[in-house]
């Protein structure tokens, strides 16, 4: 994490003064002192303060964050990692900002759906209030709009997958993009649509934006009903082959859209972002032992991901998204073969950094934990 | 001093559990029961970790940073002796807290469960010249795995001293008290050099290839520490350069003497057992626990004393549960002590002066050839070991 600095004399002076302060604080970082006084004044660390909290549907909460000056902004579709302390433990999760990327106020808007078993989402839904300071990472991810912008765009989302795609829509509207944009969103019922008013207002105010709401559990209202199929595509975007499609949603929707695009032979026009955890490999494949060399612990390979196996062995490796996105759990594999459950790739290189949350051992594996 | 021994020794019968008359004999089943009870204690404590533990360590960190800032600030009044003394005291306290209740414990992974990047054992550095990664190897791995096993635990004598009867005497050890004194005064440098295994380098057992990365680590870590304490902060006080320099040297000295004393009280007072490699081969978890209990010693004191010693005054509990937050040891200690009493095991504890006095007595005694000093080794504990057929 380096601080950007230019060659201007004032910056150089500031930087050398900073190095002096850092030398005075050695071996600790300056932020380890500053955070004890006020967490929002940082030298290196990026954090964010919650400035507004809205609870729009029964189970979603929208947080507006004001990041510290290290924030380098984001591109629509990217994600950030947010860290929050719950009962003494800092938990990190990935969320996609929902606001337009060029917003001049420098704020970040996150919408979090409180999953029944989601520790962080439940906590934020119940307890987030203005003044709460969160850890924040710089934005990352390749799910972004190309430049120049495509002439025709189909944005497809389902449930809480709406946020990166909504960010794209808001960004395009902000940029006064003239191309036609169709926003197709899937929800159980109308009551489950986060941002319903905003979506309607955006569609009403911009002739090139058409909003299509599809309900899977509601047979009236909206524009479409049931799950995604080619008939939906034909109905809302008959020009799909001539457009770029951006998709984010639950696994079922992702699968459905991918299949249709594959059959149509236009997979290269489909851009996706996974938001569901990787499925665990089938039972019965497990074999060998996993050794955690730094802790001196060895356990039989249970066939689960290495992150789950490490936790089952009583270790506490760092992790973030638990789905292979954020690389928080990256650890050096000393030896053995691992299989990436997302890609199916196997890896036999020794001393290789692997992601624990999406890697399963194939036979004996040694990890530097 | 008796080590763990097989039960064919002659005094298996007739033990009444008294420490002074005959050795205590622990049956295999007793050892395994002790193991189960300690595992249960561990599980109860782990299940209870949470917000309070987080608040505790941050309270200590706040106090440490407060003492540090106060100490550095008071050096600007270094021309006024009471201010200089107060500054040195504050800085000494800051360094002791940093090294003991914070650094030592964080680097054991005691707070890894918080998943707080600033308190993670993999990345934490402490305010001493020894690089964290080297210390974690020599201490967390070598010392905590092979606690009090002669020839394996390099903390026995630190490669310099004769501190155990079983270390073979030679004339070099006539200087034992002198070496101990210098080790005490320069303790942070001794700790830094610990992972080098200097005697193995001299004897040619360690290659330059193994040593080079250690030296690089020293240059990086010790260089910054020296620059901070002996150049930058003195220079920042301008005309008071010399008083500030002397103040910082004194603060480091205070920390060294204190850390050395607490650490030597952990394993070297009278009554602590040492072991041989044969006795401890293929230990069960229960046997490992028993060795940790017999090889460690506690110091009694006030809550403040425990904090200032990084709770290493609960060395027995620390060696049983090195990765549990140290401020939990005081509440775990009565359970461990009761377990010892139940099985007739010694629970080596005493006031600071008693424990450190017996350490220095050993340092002087073991300087002399064994023929010149009478051996009054107390009876040890004999552990019956069953090599399980299964």
TrEMBL record, chain B:
Residues 83-349 form the Fatty acid desaturase domain. InterPro entries: FA_desaturase_dom, Fatty_acid_desaturase. Pfam families: FA_desaturase (PF00487). This is Acyl-CoA desaturase. It comes from Rhodococcus opacus (strain B4). It comes from the Bacteria. GO terms for molecular function: stearoyl-CoA 9-desaturase activity. The keyword Translocase does not apply. One of its GO terms (biological process) is lipid metabolic process. Its EC number is 1.14.19.1.
């Amino acid at each position: 994490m380096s601080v950007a600095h230019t060659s201007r004399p004032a910056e150089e002076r500031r930087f050398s003064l900073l190095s002096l302060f850092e030398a005075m604080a050695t071996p600790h970082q300056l932020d380890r002192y500053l955070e004890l006084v006020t967490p929002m004044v940082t030298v290196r660390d990026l954090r964010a303060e919650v400035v507004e909290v809205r609870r729009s549907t029964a189970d979603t909460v929208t947080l507006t964050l004001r990041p510290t000056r290290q924030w380098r902004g984001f591109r629509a579709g990217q994600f950030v990692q947010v860290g929050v302390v719950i009962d003494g433990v800092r938990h990190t999760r990935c969320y996609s900002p929902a606001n337009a990327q060029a917003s001049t106020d420098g704020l970040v808007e996150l919408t979090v759906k409180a999953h029944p078993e989601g520790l962080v989402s439940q906590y934020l839904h119940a307890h987030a209030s203005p003044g709460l300071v969160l850890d924040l990472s710089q934005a990352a991810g390749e799910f972004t709009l190309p430049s120049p912008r495509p002439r025709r765009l189909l944005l497809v989302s389902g449930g809480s997958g709406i946020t990166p795609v909504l960010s794209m829509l808001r960004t395009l509207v902000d940029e006064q993009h003239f191309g036609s944009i169709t926003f197709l969103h899937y929800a159980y019922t109308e009551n489950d649509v986060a941002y319903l008013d905003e979506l309607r207002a955006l569609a009403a105010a911009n002739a090139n934006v058409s909003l299509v709401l599809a309900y899977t559990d509601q047979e009236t209202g909206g524009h479409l009903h049931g799950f995604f199929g080619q008939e939906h595509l034909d109905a809302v975007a008959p020009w799909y082959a001539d457009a770029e499609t951006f998709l984010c949603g639950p696994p079922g929707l992702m699968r459905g859209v991918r299949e249709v695009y594959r059959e149509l032979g236009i997979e290269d026009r489909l851009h996706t972002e996974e938001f569901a955890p990787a499925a665990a490999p089938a039972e019965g494949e497990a074999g060998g032992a996993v050794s955690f060399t730094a802790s001196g612990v060895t356990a039989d390979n249970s066939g689960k991901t290495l992150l789950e196996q490490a936790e089952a062995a009583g270790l506490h490796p760092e992790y973030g998204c638990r789905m292979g996105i954020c690389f928080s759990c990256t650890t050096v594999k000393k030896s053995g073969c691992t299989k990436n459950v997302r890609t199916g790739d196997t890896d036999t290189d020794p001393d290789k950094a692997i992601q624990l949350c999406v890697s399963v051992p194939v036979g004996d594996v040694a990890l530097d934990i | 001093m008796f080590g763990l021994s097989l039960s064919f020794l002659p005094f298996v019968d007739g033990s009444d559990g008294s420490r002074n008359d005959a050795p205590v004999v622990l049956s295999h089943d007793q050892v395994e029961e002790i193991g189960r009870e300690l595992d249960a204690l561990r599980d109860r404590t782990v299940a209870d970790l949470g917000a309070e533990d987080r608040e505790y360590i941050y309270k200590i960190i706040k106090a440490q940073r407060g003492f540090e800032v106060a100490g550095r600030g008071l050096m600007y009044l270094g021309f006024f002796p009471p201010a200089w003394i107060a500054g040195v005291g504050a800085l000494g306290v800051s360094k002791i807290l940093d090294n003991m209740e914070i650094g030592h414990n964080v680097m054991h992974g005691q707070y890894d469960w918080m998943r707080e990047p600033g308190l993670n054992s993999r990345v934490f550095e402490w305010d001493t010249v020894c690089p964290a990664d080297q210390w974690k190897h020599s201490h967390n791995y070598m010392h905590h795995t092979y606690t009090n096993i002669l020839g394996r635990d390099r903390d026995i004598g630190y490669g310099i001293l004769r501190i155990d009867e079983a270390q073979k005497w030679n004339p070099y050890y006539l200087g034992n008290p002198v070496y101990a004194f210098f080790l005490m005064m320069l303790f942070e440098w001794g700790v830094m050099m610990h992972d080098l295994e200097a005697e193995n380098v001299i004897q040619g057992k360690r290659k330059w290839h193994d040593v080079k990365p250690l030296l690089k680590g020293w240059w990086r870590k010790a260089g910054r520490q020296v620059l901070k304490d002996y150049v930058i902060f003195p220079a920042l006080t301008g005309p008071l350069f010399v008083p500030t320099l002397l103040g910082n040297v004194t603060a480091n000295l205070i920390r060294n003497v204190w850390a050395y004393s607490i650490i030597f009280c952990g394993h070297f007072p009278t009554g602590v057992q040492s072991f041989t490699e044969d006795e401890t081969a293929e230990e069960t978890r229960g046997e490992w626990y028993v060795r940790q209990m017999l090889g460690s010693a506690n110091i009694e004191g006030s809550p403040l004393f425990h904090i200032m010693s990084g709770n290493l005054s609960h060395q027995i509990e620390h060696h049983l549960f090195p990765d549990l937050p140290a401020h939990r040891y005081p509440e775990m200690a009565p359970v461990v002590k009761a377990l010892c009493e139940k099985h007739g095991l010694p629970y080596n504890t005493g006031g600071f002066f008693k424990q450190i006095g017996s350490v220095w007595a050993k340092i002087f005694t073991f300087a002399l050839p064994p023929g010149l000093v009478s051996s009054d080794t107390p009876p040890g504990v004999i552990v019956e070991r069953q090599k399980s057929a299964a």
